[in-house]
Predict the 3D structure of the following.
Amino acid sequence: MPYVVWSDMFSINMPFIDNQHKKLINIVNDFHEAIHKNKGEESLFKILNALIKYAEQHFQDEERVMEFSGYPLDKKNEHKKIHEQLIIDIFRLQQEYNQSEEKT
């Protein structure tokens, strides 16, 4: 069973962005599954790197869409801060995982 299940509540009715959100959910689900199935350090490392790379690309794409669609600047800046925090959180997760692996 997936950790996160896509719901139409997540949709912004923009297929390009919705599909990217679905892919991000799939990567998160892959990570969750890998942890619970003890797939090993190399597998988890690859998934985390994929999440970081894809999230960064997605955030750039989403911010470009907001800019070109005339999204209000204050809301765009607020959303960009959320993106920045998510990237920090992903890197922190990766660092915590690496530190826990070093202890074992």
